[in-house]
Amino acid sequence: MRVALVHDWLTGMRGGEKVLEAICEIFPNAPLYTLVWIPGSVSPSIEARRIVTSFAQRLPDPARFYRHYLPLYPLAVRQFDLSGYDLIISSSHCAVKAVVPPEGAVHVCYCHSPMRYAWDQFDAYFGAAHVGQVTSRLIRPVMQALARWDAATADRVDRFVANSQYVAGRIDRYYNRRSTIVNPPVDTDFYTPGTHTGSPYFLAVSALVPYKRLDVAIDACRLAGASLKIVGTGPERARLAERAGPGVEFLGWQPDDAIRELYRGATATLLPGTEDFGIVPVEAQACGCPVVALDAGGARETVVHGVTGMLVSEPGPAAFAAGLEQVSGTAFDRTSIRENALRFSRDRFLNAFRLALDEAIAGKHAGAARL
């Protein structure tokens, strides 16, 4: 069976890329099609294979502007030539779930989320507060058109695999499709507890983009009088730096071993936004680090309130600050925290994803109705 992998873009080693890396382990020789690839931005195991990029790769400064090229991606994915492949696996949070599979091929989409900015999170990305009133008004009809296209191309997928119950609900709502749930993998052999005796601090590991709501983490730490370390880069860096006080340290992207040490030493890892799943809180728990998260989205599936961290019911800084104070005064059992993370191990993901692929292939050959 000839297999092709498709991923939206390769511009950093975030949660979606860690899922892709695990899928690459199953199919070590499969070529990878992607809209934009910034060499050196993802792991060697991903970059070792043949990578085919779209015409967006040849547009000005794709490393900086790849998000700006969003309206061009429907055309870009349609131009991928996947003829000759029997199995197409798309890893999609944006456009590549809409690739056109060849006749008779099976297309399985591992969906990290339907397009957030085109559906229910437009204001978080393109609201007037972020891009200005005029620009927001101009972008809105573009995103509405993308949402219609996103829904209309859902039938190009034979089987959706959702990364969480929360995303399965979004797939059902926007695509009118059911899905198999396979949670992302976390390297629980690498992320392990350790010892740290430094000054207390809270930690956020995140792309610096609006929906992550890191401004809430910054404000909450100010209210609680606590230090905050932020690992990550993104377009929100300048705005967040202006908002932050002396107790906030921006570390940029860090290698995995440095992030592991930060997890091990943190009072808690913070998750102030609504995550589709959220690999970071599971990595933190694998290191025995409790999590303070908004009681929404994937955090409800990964954080056990009062046992592995705190779920905050209100989205504002005051409620989050209260959660920080509560977690600081709680003696957590770090063994129990780690045991919770083991539910999301890499081996579990590989076995569950292989099973989902086998079911999709068998269903296609048997002429079964799509989920």
Walkthrough of the structure:
- The chain is α/β, with parallel strands linked by helices.
- The chain folds into 2 domains: 3-185 and 346-366, Rossmann fold (3-Layer(aba) Sandwich); 202-343, Glycogen Phosphorylase B (Rossmann fold).
- Helices cover 40% and strands 16% of the residues.
- It has 16 helices and 13 strands.
- The strands form 2 sheets. A 7-stranded parallel beta sheet has the order 3-2-1-4-5-6-7. It has a 6-stranded parallel beta sheet with strand order 10-9-8-11-12-13, sandwiched between helices.
- Helix 12 crosses helix 15 (334-341).
- The longest helix is centred in the last third of the chain and has 21 residues, at 346-366.
- The chain starts with a strand and ends in a 5-residue tail after the last helix.
- The mean pLDDT is 93.
Helix and strand layout, with pairings?
Blueprint: E1 3-10, H1 15-26, E2 32-37, H2 44-47, E3 51-53, H3 62-65, H4 73-78, E4 87-92, E5 106-111, H5 122-126, H6 128-131, H7 133-152, E6 159-162, H8 165-175, E7 180-181, E8 202-205, H9 214-224, E9 228-231, H10 237-243, E10 248-252, H11 256-265, E11 268-271, H12 279-286, E12 291-294, H13 299-302, E13 309-312, H14 317-328, H15 334-341, H16 346-366
Parallel strand pairs: 1-2, 1-4, 2-3, 4-5, 5-6, 6-7, 8-9, 8-11, 9-10, 11-12, 12-13
Provide a concise account of the structure shown.
The protein is of the alpha/beta class and 371 residues long. It has helices spanning 15-26, 44-47, 62-65, 73-78, 122-126, 128-131, 133-152, 165-175, 214-224, 237-243, 256-265, 279-286, 299-302, 317-328, 334-341, 346-366, and strands at 3-10, 32-37, 51-53, 87-92, 106-111, 159-162, 180-181, 202-205, 228-231, 248-252, 268-271, 291-294, 309-312.
